[in-house]
Amino acid sequence: MSVLVVVECADGEVKKSSLEVASYGAQVAAQLGTTATAIAVGHANEANLAKLGEQGITKVLFDAEPRLKDFVNNAYTKLIATAAEQEQAKIIVLANSNIGAAVGSRLSVRLKASLATNVVELPKTDGGQFTVKRGAFSGKAFSDVVLSGDRKIIAVKKNSTEAKHDDGKTAEVVSFAAQLSDADFADAPTQVIMQDQAGGVLLPEAELVVSGGRGMKGPENWGLIEDLAKALGAGTACSKPVSDVDWRPHHEHVGQTGITISPNLYIACGISGAIQHLAGVNSSKVIVVINKDPEAPFFKAADYGIVGDVFDVLPKLTAAVKALN
Amino acid sequence: MKFLVCISNVPDTTTKIAFTPDNKEFNKAGVQFVINPWDEYALTRAIELKEAAGSGTVTVLNVGEADTEPNIRKALAIGADDAIRVNAAPQDAYFVAEQIAAIAKEGAYDVILMGKESIDYNGFQVHGMVGEMLGIPTVAPAMKLDMSGNTATLEREIEGGKEIVTVNTPFVASCQQPMCEPRIPNMRGIMTARTKPLKVVPAIGEPARTTVAEFALPPKKQGVKLIDAENAGELIKLLRNEAKVI
């Protein structure tokens, strides 16, 4: 009986969302009086895996098969299922990412496990029931879900739990071979194309986000958004109308039919705040709204607001951030 | 090519979410239900691929009670050829996946498409479960889908980029933008949809593995603190010293 944590790596680094997952898994293990083991997927580096001790992981399984560098659904599923059997894991924790959801859903069938995605808090285990809180209705609500059965899989929403750091602690990295065959790599990607990350901040994992709507008037004005984002070290996002007319790529679209994010700070520039947009961002810890229309509905959902022209206000904010740093 | 497109019946995106007094169920009173917006990409793309090939069929599948039929008819009006409704309330993702897998197997469908997730329960689970139950590949979430004979080329979104994936039929894909421009029904479609076959079948399989104990709404905001536009830099100080987020 143990907790198995799936950690996604890219370019040798453990992804931020996977640090959160590792910390979550270690806390679940502590709740249940057991230990947390991690299994690494993606382009991992052993020295960085050992540092997962800081999040409370005791052991990290690492399969050096080079084809695991890219996401291969079947291979990842088999790798994690094999690790779960070896470790007799009753709880598997992964990130609610595109990879985590794709693998977690297949694993739930293979391992006969119950599955909850989009989980935002540690489980409650009192009264013989195992209950997790998850986001529902695209950020408009939460639901407490009871997971039945002997084995459970939890996909943790990004930025909703904090990664703890216990400096200096290290995890033991153990080599692991899932005996993957060519057939397991049949659905391997033929090509992987990464976006050119402005400032290197990935939107779904960003702690600070600067976002623009139709009030920005055109893609040529996005420099104002990017300048503030760069000064803050923030990611950039946009509303649906903006991605619909191709001012910005669709992966920046936050909202009910885009991505839902929960950064520490969300700055909305020239976005009126339609209910579909609010759904995607209302779990942000602090919301700032800049809009020249004092009646914009977004102000009702905001913590701080500036009624003013984004073209005047944004350069002032950028200058103020630079002055602060 | 036989396409199976799975649609779910969800509250319209403008819906203000409310629950029954015991917080155990979504309050449907006065709510307009629509085809899940993500599923519209799957439906339209299946129809486009069928049209491009000049042959094939598109079947829509819904797991739901009789009140979902208006949206099934809408899918037929958009261009699906026939429909199947599994007559049961969708209990959880596993239960729904079991129904889809059984029908996909029985009907020997080549391509099983659905939206990335439903906008009500946001499970993002059914695609992978169906793929695993049938022992076939899943590509999720797919931004692009092209077919050439029995081979499909898809773009899968990953965090920070995309992968090009090639799979042979049968396979499952969960769809999202910018796969296509979702179609709306035209008058001719609406007229012909009335007479297209809609088969109702009973549910099968094991009971659900998860149950909702309670729903809750997010906590309300305290109210907005306004900062004068002339003095916008003040905001940055507040974000650092008061909100402590930068």
From TrEMBL, chain A:
Residue span, Electron transfer flavoprotein alpha/beta-subunit N-terminal domain: 3-192
The organism of origin for this protein: Hymenobacter artigasi
Lineage, opening ranks: Bacteria, Pseudomonadati, Bacteroidota, Cytophagia, Cytophagales
Protein name: Electron transfer flavoprotein alpha subunit
A Pfam match: ETF_alpha
Coiled coil: none
Top-level taxon: Bacteria
InterPro entries for this protein: DHS-like_NAD/FAD-binding_dom, ETF_a/b_N, ETF_a/FixB, ETF_asu_C, Rossmann-like_a/b/a_fold
Similarity section: Belongs to the ETF alpha-subunit/FixB family.
Alphabetical keyword list: Electron transport, Transport
TM regions (residue ranges): none
UniProtKB/TrEMBL annotation, chain B:
InterPro entries in alphabetical order: ETF_a/b_N, ETF_b, ETF_beta_N, Rossmann-like_a/b/a_fold
Matching SUPFAM superfamilies: Adenine nucleotide alpha hydrolases-like
Keyword Transport: yes
Tagged with keyword Transferase: no
Keywords: Electron transport, Transport
Gene3D superfamilies xrefs: HUPs
Organism domain of life: Bacteria
Protein name in UniProt: Electron transfer flavoprotein beta subunit
Organism expressing this protein natively: Hymenobacter artigasi
Cross-referenced CDD domains: ETF_beta (cd01714)
Pfam families named among the record's database cross-references: ETF
Domain Electron transfer flavoprotein alpha/beta-subunit N-terminal: 23-210
